Amino acid sequence: MKFASGIKYRKPMLMAADFFLFSASYFSAWFMLMRRIVFDEYVNTMLLGYVFFIAIFFAVYWAFGMYESLWRYAEAYEFLKCMIAIMVAMAAFLTVTWFVFQPPRVTRRLPFTVYGVSAAAAGGSTLFFRTAYRAFRANKTRRRGGEKRKKVLIVGTSETGVAVIQGLERNPTQRYEVVCAVDDNPAMVGRKIQRVPVSGTTSDIPRLTERHGIQVILLAIPNVTAKEKRRISGICAKTNCELKKIPDIFDFKTDEENSSEAEVISRIEDVSVEDLLGRDVVDIKRFKEKYLKGQTVLITGAGGTIGSELCRQAAAHGAARIIMVDVWENGLYAMEQELIYKFGQGKIAPIAEVANIREESRLDRLFERYKPHLVYHAAAHKHVPLMETAPEEAVKNNIFGTLNVARCAQRHGVKRFVLISSDKAVNPTNVYGATKRVCEMVAQVFHAEKEGATEFVAVRFGNVLGSNGSVIPLFKAQIAAGGPVRVTHKEIIRYYMTVSEAVSLVMSAGEMAKGGEIFVLDMGDPVKTLDLAEMLIRLSGYEPYTEIDIEFTGLRPGEKLYEELLMAEEGLKTTSNNKIFVGKPIDIEPEKLFDALDALKKAADNGTRGELKDKLHELVPGFVV
Predict the structure, then answer these.
(1) β-pairing, 493-494 with 527-528?
(2) Is the distance from CB of 624 to CB of 429 less than 8 angstroms?
(3) Are strands 176-182 and 196-200 parallel, antiparallel or unpaired?
């Protein structure tokens, strides 16, 4: 209310201040230059000139919008506009006075410097007044936060970094106090940005944080590579400071109409583990809305991490109907409600169907009812240790569930069938990976047989950050409990990607598919799980091994130190997207595959686990039993 009241009376108060400054400037010039003869000879001229003076300056200032701007937030544009208005007002006044008060035939003219000095004094005083007010408000805002403000170091002095400094300087709540900045451009070191010194490069961050008692490091480096961002973030993560960032998508505006303190502050967010992984997010722009627009898309495992993101992206790219299939009704219901809330009931038709992919007859009825154009098969049992203790469930759900969905897709003329696979399918050391490799073989054989119009394709990628049951949520829960964080092995490494990247790859593969391919994403460098644990502990505000301990529990059953994305015999072929590759299809004899699957099914239904694993090994020679 106090701020609103100030806004209400701002314009008349500013005009009153200008009126005082105009008057003082005008009469001061007269009395200083004319002295006693003013009242004797030129008093009428002085008063008439005063009327012109006030009228001209107010008219020009009004025309230039000098009373509409909020001067507490004024930037360079406002002051430039003020200077132009002053020059225009001075020129107009001097022109009028020359012709009105200095006619050519007058033998005794008034010294013209009186009008020049008065106009210059009026312009200078009003500009000084606005500048002083802006500085006063900024200083008052900085002092208001007192000791509650957190000391901030800004990383990066590009336009983004400058905009952040400006926004924090104008922030009335003053949660942050910018102490210094760093930049790897040597030309910037030693300079100042709005009184904030650029005190060094990124290598100086630990020294500067200790010297100045920095509590928050704010990354304002949207245009650097992910590898460079990881290097900088790694330095910052060792300081025990809070790490925050400005999202890359934020386009800063610094004028009063397009920016506010609250907006700038609201754009500051915590640095996530994804920011520290050291790989560029794959920007897959291959598929367009026309690929999915107006299509009926059926997604299995729609309540899971990958399936739910498939639903979101299918809806965002114009799918007419999304048939969401899952046996987990809670996740399915949540996904249905999310799509309805986000996109509206009329724009898309999300249809939730509780169904088990093991039941082919149930799937067949769904395919008959909805006649999908595209199928994305994400349903699977995926937890490696659990599948080691229940291999028959992995076989029944992953392999024969996939077989059921593939048969229905082929039978009902689905245009494309996209299988979600895993890097664990390459030279698998666990049951889950072996089942995924068999699923890839099924997709390739279905395409090779060409009994229908369906194009079958598989998409293979690594671990998805934050997915249900993945390592990051587990580590976060252990940190929240006070530790220890449990890592299986010091040297274990994994490929990581975001869920949006994974699904973008799946969508792109669906568009590029000609049938039989296994698409592989260039996932950059693998990451040590130990490094990931240490980064998460530091991001949570603790020091590894001292405040939160790390324990090594040993490799779990079926787990290996590293994952692969291709088998040696598959080779590699580029695509139109330089981040997506295709593994060359391996020749598979359909009859041999289906005979082996029959034997595997009998073992899953009636055999021992040892027999079941032997049958899996026969199907996947690379599987180490």
Answers:
(1) antiparallel
(2) yes
(3) parallel
